[in-house]
Design goal:
300 residues, three-stranded antiparallel β-sheet, 10 helices, Phosphorylase Kinase, domain 1, 32% helix, Transferase(Phosphotransferase), domain 1, 3 domains, six-stranded antiparallel β-sheet, alpha+beta
C-alpha cells in the first residue's frame, strides 16, 4: 500500500507508513467525512443533579478520549463511586457497546488492591455509562507534573504495585492496553490503583475488540499496537517501561509534534538511556526499563 504523503510502499496490513508514520487508509476506505458521531455533543452532568434516577453528581473528575468521569453518590447504597459517561463515538456504535459488555464481564473478575474495581455498564437518557470504584487521591501524571521526577525509592514502590495489579489481570487473561500515568491513581496512603480497564481485552477471548483496531495513547503504545496487531500482556510491559522511565526522568522516552511522529519513534527509534537524564538511577533499574522497552515483544 503506497503512502499518500511520501509514496513509500508499505505492507497491506500496516496502519502507519514505515517511512513517515502517516496513517494509511484502510482497504476500501474513502475520504473521511463529517459524521453524526462528530456532530453529537458530549453529554455533561451538573453538580447536584441526579443521573439515571440514583446517581447524585458531586463533581467532575476529568475527561479524556473515552468520556467524562464524575464523582457521584449512589443513593441506593449510599456510597461514593466514579461514573464515566462514554463519548458519542462509542454510544452510537452498537457493536462497540456489545464488545464493552463482553469485556466488562471479564474485567469485573479482577479483585486486587492495586486495581480499581469495575462495577457495571448501563445506559440512561440515551447515554451509555460505566460505574467503577472511586479512589480519592491524585493520578500519577499529575504527581509527576507537580513534583517532577520521583525519587528512585518511590518510583520503584509504585512500579511494584502496578506490577502486582497487572500480574493479577494477566493471570485472568485481561490486558489493559492503555496503561499510562493518567490511569494510575495514588490514594492518600500512597497505594497505586490501576484504572480504566474499560478498553481491556481478554487474551483468551480474541475478537471482542475487532480486528485491526488501534487502541491506546501514542506516548505509551507498544510497536505492535501501532501496527494494529493483537495486544498481549507484553504490550502492558512496554507501557510499564515508559511509565517507569517517566517517573525517574520526568519525561517520556518518545515525544513528537504529532501522534504519527510519536508512533514512528515507538516503532523505529531506540529509547534514550534514562541514566543520561537522571544519573543516579541504579544500573539494575536502567536494565529493567530498557528490557521493557524492547521493540520485539519476545525480548521483553
Amino acid at each position: 500500500m503506497k503512502c499518500p504523503k511520501c509514496n513509500f510502499d508499505n505492507p497491506s496490513d500496516t496502519f502507519f507508513c514505515g517511512k513517515c508514520a502517516t496513517p494509511l487508509p484502510s482497504s476500501g476506505q474513502g475520504p473521511l467525512t463529517q459524521t453524526k458521531t462528530l456532530q453529537t455533543p458530549i453529554k455533561e452532568l451538573n453538580p447536584g443533579s441526579t443521573f439515571a434516577g440514583r446517581y447524585q453528581v458531586i463533581e467532575e473528575l476529568g475527561k479524556g478520549g473515552m468520556g467524562r468521569v464524575y464523582k457521584v453518590l449512589d443513593t441506593k447504597v449510599n456510597e461514593k463511586i466514579a461514573l464515566k459517561l462514554l463519548n458519542p463515538a462509542i454510544a452510537l456504535d452498537d457493536k462497540m457497546i456489545e464488545r464493552f459488555k463482553n469485556e466488562m464481564i471479564l474485567t469485573r473478575q479482577i479483585s486486587h488492591r492495586n486495581v480499581c474495581r469495575m462495577y457495571d455498564l448501563n445506559e440512561a437518557e440515551g447515554t451509555p455509562f460505566i460505574t467503577m470504584e472511586y479512589v480519592a487521591g491524585e493520578d500519577l501524571k499529575s504527581t509527576i507534573r507537580r513534583v517532577g521526577p520521583l525519587g528512585i525509592g518511590k518510583a520503584v514502590l509504585i512500579a511494584r504495585q502496578v506490577c502486582e495489579g497487572l500480574a493479577e489481570a494477566h493471570r485472568l487473561g485481561v490486558v489493559h492496553r492503555d496503561l499510562k500515568p493518567q490511569n494510575i491513581m495514588l490514594d492518600k496512603s500512597g497505594v497505586a490503583h490501576i484504572m480504566d480497564f474499560g478498553i481491556a481485552h481478554s487474551v483468551q477471548h480474541r475478537g471482542l475488540t475487532g480486528p485491526g483496531a488501534i487502541v491506546g495513547t501514542p506516548e505509551y503504545m507498544s510497536p505492535e499496537q501501532v501496527d494494529g496487531e493483537e495486544a498481549d500482556p507484553r504490550a502492558d510491559l512496554y507501557a510499564l517501561g515508559i511509565v517507569l522511565f517517566e517517573m525517574v526522568t520526568g519525561q517520556v522516552p518518545f515525544a513528537g509534534d504529532s501522534s504519527f511522529a510519536i508512533a514512528y519513534k515507538q516503532k523505529n527509534e531506540p529509547p534514550p538511556d534514562p541514566a543520561e537524564l537522571t544519573p543516579q538511577i541504579p544500573e539494575d533499574l536502567v536494565r529493567a526499563i530498557l528490557r521493557c522497552l524492547e521493540k520485539g515483544k519476545e525480548r521483553r
